[in-house]
Amino acid sequence: ALAAALRAALDAAAAADRAAADRLDDLARAAGTGWASPPPPGRPALGAAPALVSAWWSGLTPAQRRWLIAREPALVGRLDGLPVAARDQANRLRLDVWRGELLAERRRLLSRVPPGPLAAIRLRGVVGRLAGLDALVERLTAGDAPRAYLLGLDPAGEGRAVVALGDPDHADRVLTYVPGMTAGLDDAPGELGRAARVLERCAALAPGERSAAVLWLDYDAPDFLTEAASAGQARDAGPALHRFQEGLRASHEGPPARQTVLGHSYGSLVVGVAAREHGLAADALVFVGSPGVGASHAAKLGVPPGEVWASSAPDDVIRAARPPEELGRRALFGAAPLAAVLGWPGRTGHELWFGHDPADPGFGGRVFSSGRGGHTGYWEAGNPALDGMARVVLGR
């Protein structure tokens, strides 16, 4: 069975390599016909200000842009500030390469006989990322409305993905959704489904509006509670989220779109920290199932407090995320049973692990209701939180 699996992996990798080579050969031939021509020397660095990136791209001819997409897709696909369509074209050219990297990693792990427990864990991770990538490719190539755009992908580690549903460059309303703990390439299709459900409600509530939604999973989300107890990974994500939002503004055509950034669970901390420490090009911020957003008041997030929204389900376990000093104090004195030490199911205050509960009116923002559904039920059909998120995106 192992030998058969290995042969299958090798065959798949070879097929992917041949397909990628054929595609690159076609593009190279096109580049030599005048359809594409080399641009002047000099490229924006990764991480360059999106406004500068946009200005650089605007100074290129269509033939030079086509040359860059064909010859330097790794650069074009990652530069915030470039048009969504250009990034999508460049990143699609790399899909076979990314899949080949995962197949090579799987092949390497399968070659270990016996594999050992650590290799087995890594193999499960690779298989999950392959499944996630294949599901994203299926959505990208399905032709379903709204059209999907691939704005970024990285199969390394737990994997990252940035995918838009609808064209943010031409939309009137744009949602950026930041997922939380354990999010990775393996479950990116499911996270994209959450963004899709908000978009569907937007279409139902405002049929004439052009809306788009982006799954922004371009950070290293915590995998374990020990990691999620620290704001370190949220701080690390801040500059990238800041640049991405600036890029959406820089590449947008026509009147400015209403930009909303939504964070769930640990993703709400990512959004809050980015807004407070770097500023976000956003008209509204939304937090659902939040353990705190790294701020004591909505006024510290850089958008009008009336555009800071939050919701917390009555049975969301995140409500047990009491501040560490409170948990320590209760545990030290030991006067309460375990349920009281954890602060579950009741609450006596409004402080959570990462600051004041944004779903408490005392935070200074606005609150919309959620039905029961635990920590992940905010997107379930019939939950008022789903309509709440859509109405914020629409500005209603």
From TrEMBL:
Residues 154-321 form the DUF1023 domain. It comes from Micromonospora arida. SUPFAM superfamilies: alpha/beta-Hydrolases. It comes from the Bacteria. This is DUF1023 domain-containing protein. InterPro entries: AB_hydrolase_fold, DUF1023.
